[in-house]
């Protein structure tokens, strides 16, 4: 009861949100199951592929911990706000604890089957969405058998009821667009492939629903055309007023349009589940269009990178040791990552991730406009 009354107090102070929200109870999610790419990878990729080097992780963890940032990711702030500990990566077999959920995301994962996988040149993660789904099936089935062994095993696996009560979070799609842009496809061809990508997303989400999931929190894809890896690799791309590559962002917008339509269809098809579409794109774009307003600077320039207009080069990534004029140097961090948007040319800083979390968790960028803590509900009333 205290939960409900404090919520009402909180919402009465916001003039735009009226009574009905007071009818909503906080969901008390006991666990999170996350699917995605490097935007939400908490150690899956590095459990299978070469580790990240310092200065990854320097701001919060003081060491690289498998997150593609200087610190925490949006998913970390999500977990914290739901009073849950950091999510263990499903692929990490060392010291993991899945009682409050699991993270299936790995860096460079795609929704659709990648044409080439790492370590091939231009390769993507073998752990694409369907594989992440299969891993989830494994966890769901086997966790209960393992719990029955008792002792420490019972303290490492989620309770059976958590699978239905958990929040299911998704942030995937950026690499499907990237695979096209960096493969041999024109921008128009990548754009034309969007409906197929989104269909595949939908198929996997339905499968997760069929296993009992009921609360879905779905991030759209960010403005890929504002990221140094696109700007530096496609220097002739036409820029918008803030310097982002216009047509690349338009493909992301089309992906988001199709994704939103798909989420609407899922909501119609499954009346017993809550599907929340979260417009991460708009929040991320505001960091590029109005950085000063939000306390940031140099949004197009990577904090940890090397070379060119955007401090980014694919051959000299963050943490790499390179030779410049016969001297070895390590690609390190900028002076103050806390005022920077882009960390390594592809991923955001902890400061940006925290800002994005604070914006999206209120529900102001969601459809329906439901706050994170209430994302088990379908409507405001
Ligand atoms: C998290 O814990 C704090 C302090 O105990 C409490 O005020 C808050 O309502 C909890 N949040 C959720 C989502 O349960
Ligand atoms: C796993 O995490 C849960 C929740 O944070 C905790 O209660 C439990 O003791 C942990 N298990 C072990 C073996 O430490
Ligand atoms: C992408 O395709 C959609 C639907 O055909 C179209 O409306 C949009 O203009 C296209 N965008 C680009 C950048 O090609
Ligand atoms: C490398 O040496 C050249 C020639 O002395 C100089 O012009 C250039 O600025 C040097 N580059 C760096 C990064 O120090
Ligand atoms: C570019 O990256 C280097 C590390 O290689 C860093 O020292 C420098 O501060 C960065 N430049 C900017 C403008 O952030």
Automatic annotation (TrEMBL):
Residues 1-23 form the signal peptide. Keywords: Glycoprotein, Hydrolase, Signal. PANTHER family: ESTERASE-LIKE ISOFORM X1, ZINC FINGER FYVE DOMAIN CONTAINING PROTEIN. InterPro entries: GDSL, SGNH_hydro_sf, SGNH_plant_lipase-like. Belongs to the 'GDSL' lipolytic enzyme family. The keyword Hydrolase applies. CDD domains: SGNH_plant_lipase_like. It comes from Populus euphratica. GO terms for molecular function: hydrolase activity, acting on ester bonds. It comes from the Eukaryota. This is Esterase-like. Gene3D superfamilies: SGNH hydrolase.
């Amino acid at each position: 009861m205290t939960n409900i009354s404090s919520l009402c107090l909180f919402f009465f102070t916001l003039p735009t949100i009226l009574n009905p929200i007071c009818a909503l109870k906080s969901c008390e999610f006991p666990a999170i199951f996350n699917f995605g790419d490097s935007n939400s990878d908490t150690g899956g990729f590095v459990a299978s592929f070469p580790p990240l080097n310092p200065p990854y992780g320097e701001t919060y963890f003081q060491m690289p911990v498998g997150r593609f940032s200087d610190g925490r990711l949006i998913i970390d702030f999500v977990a914290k706000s739901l009073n849950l500990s950091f999510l263990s990566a499903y692929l990490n077999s060392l010291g993991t604890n899945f009682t409050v959920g699991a993270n299936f995301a790995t860096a460079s994962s795609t929704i659709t089957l990648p044409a080439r996988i790492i370590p091939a040149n231009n390769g993507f993660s073998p752990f694409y969405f369907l594989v992440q789904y299969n891993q989830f099936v494994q966890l769901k089935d086997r966790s209960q058998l393992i719990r029955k062994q008792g002792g420490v095993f019972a303290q490492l696996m989620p309770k059976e009821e958590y699978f239905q009560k958990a929040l299911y979070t998704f942030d995937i799609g950026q690499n499907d667009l990237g695979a096209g842009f960096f493969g041999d496809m024109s921008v128009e061809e990548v754009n034309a492939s969007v409906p197929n990508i989104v269909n595949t997303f939908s198929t996997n989400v339905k499968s997760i629903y069929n296993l009992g999931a009921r609360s879905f929190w779905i991030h759209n894809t960010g403005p890929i055309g504002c990221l140094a890896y696109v700007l530096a690799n496609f220097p002739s791309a036409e820029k918008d007023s803030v310097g982002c590559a216009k047509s690349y962002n338009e493909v992301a917008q089309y992906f988001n349009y199709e994704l939103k339509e798909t989420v609407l269809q899922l909501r119609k098809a499954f009346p017993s589940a809550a599907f929340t579409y979260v417009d991460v794109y708009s929040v991320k774009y505001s960091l590029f269009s109005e950085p000063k307003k939000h306390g940031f600077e140099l949004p197009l320039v990577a904090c940890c990178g090397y070379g060119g207009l955007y401090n980014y080069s694919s051959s000299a990534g963050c943490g790499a040791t390179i030779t410049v004029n016969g001297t070895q140097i390590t690609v390190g961090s900028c002076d103050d990552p806390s005022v920077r948007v882009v960390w390594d040319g592809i991923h955001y800083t902890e400061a940006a991730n925290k800002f994005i979390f604070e914006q999206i968790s209120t529900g102001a960028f969601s459809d329906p406009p439901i706050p994170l803590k209430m994302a088990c509900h379908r409507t405001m009333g």
